[in-house]
Amino acid sequence: MESQMENLNQNQMDALKEMGNIGAGNAITALSQLLGKRISMKVPVVKMVEFKHMAEFLGGPEQLIAGVLVQISGDINGIMMFLVKKECARELINTLMTEFSHDYAQRDEAESFTELENSALQEIGNILTSSYLGSLANLINKRVIPSTPMLSMDMANAILSVPAIEFGKDADCALLIESLFDSDIYSVSGYFLLVPDDTSLNIILTCLGAK
Length: 211
Fold this sequence. Notes:
Largest sheet: 8 strands, antiparallel
Helix content: 40-55%
Strand content: 25-35%
CATH architecture: 3-Layer(aba) Sandwich
Structural class: alpha+beta
CATH superfamily: CheC-like
Order of helices and strands: HEEHEEHHEEHEEH
Number of domains: 1
């Protein structure tokens, strides 16, 4: 049985794209405050992407990816992930750790992350996803409750198997929001992956006036 995610009309896609723009903008503002640096964001690229093709957008199935996943509950249900390539994750960690610890020595992207660095990256993902979902909650005037974030570092195919397995029986695609954000010292591409269940998608579209 096909899901709504696979049969959206142009008006519904436009509404979801606008939601993606607002959510990503809110998340980048929160990241700027966290890092203590001015960060600008290009207009996000919002697409409906099949799970089987999603790894291609992240650099290929073997690309090393850091993924922060939160379960969504409340008035809507589903999952959200923040995905970033390992080298971009290193940039974010170096910036955050340098901001809060003058004794921190920046490390090369090829090095494995320490437990402290993993915690820093998980907090970055938590801030970004929580800010995005908070923006969504305000936009649709519904309760949107994120779970405690879970961090994984693996190849893109392995990271993306989580939403594919959990939601693949109901739908084979998800909303992918690519955001390019720049500071004075780096440029980082991050990806928000939003997968609501069918009932929740219906609620979102209704609240956005796109039903």
